[in-house]
Design goal:
Layout: H1 3-6, H2 20-30, E1 34-39, E2 42-48, H3 49-54, H4 65-74, H5 77-80, E3 87-88, H6 94-104, E4 108-113, E5 116-122, H7 123-133, E6 140-147, H8 154-164, E7 169-176, E8 181-187, H9 192-201, E9 205-212
């Protein structure tokens, strides 16, 4: 899957002269935590809640509420925004985006199509994609079979067996662990006991069966 399949495109943006207090109001209003900063449609920075918190007086300050609000009204996005924004492409693979976030220790990537701002993707979007791709929301039965790494034709046999019982495979994932390989198969039936029985009788080690009701 690609970044463009899970990125947010309904963006709320600000300009460099937007005050911090206005930016915070926009974040609360739209329930978001980051605001791209643009000038004439061109990305020039990123303002986040964490950046604002880092540049705000601590709770131990002796300033009054009015003095704090005055400072926030005088401080603009240009004063504190992130200028070296980490970006990605809408055609980048999700795992590329996830790896970039981990390596750069950030929770968001701004999505650029050449020089055009087209979206943002956050760590929350990556989590949602992981859940979706693994079929968690899809009704049916998900089962795990342990297989030998050097056994050829496993996926073909799993497919033929499900087809023989008139089940459709909606998702399939292969996980290579240290000492074994797990194949997680999601089929469109609620009869989990029958699924387990069929594959166990074929000699598969079924290590887990999970049902998602309709």
């Amino acid at each position: 899957m690609y970044v463009k399949n899970y990125m947010s495109t309904d963006l709320v943006t600000i300009t460099p002269d937007t005050t911090v207090i206005k930016a915070l109001d926009l974040m609360r209003q739209h329930d978001i935590h980051r605001l791209p900063v643009v000038v004439k449609g061109q990305l020039v920075g990123l303002l986040t809640e964490s950046v604002i918190a880092k540049n705000s007086p601590s709770t131990a300050t002796s300033l009054s509420v009015h003095e704090l609000n005055y400072l926030l009204n005088k401080t603009t996005a240009a004063d504190i925004m992130i200028r070296r924004v980490i970006t990605t492409s809408p055609d980048a693979l999700l795992e590329q985006a996830a790896s970039e976030m981990r390596n750069m220790d950030v929770g968001v990537l701004v999505v650029m199509d050449h020089a055009q701002l087209v979206g943002i993707i956050t760590d929350k979007d990556i989590f949602e994609a992981f859940i979706d791709i693994n079929g968690y929301y899809t009704p049916g039965t998900r089962f795990v079979v342990e297989v030998e790494d050097d056994k050829i034709g496993i996926l073909e046999d799993l497919g033929e067996t499900t087809a023989k019982h008139n089940w459709s495979i909606t998702q399939m994932n292969v996980y290579h662990l240290d000492d074994k390989t797990n194949v997680v198969v999601h089929v469109d039936t609620q009869d989990s006991e029958e699924v387990a029985r069929v594959f166990q009788e074929k000699g598969y080690k079924v290590s887990g069966v999970f049902v998602k009701p309709e």
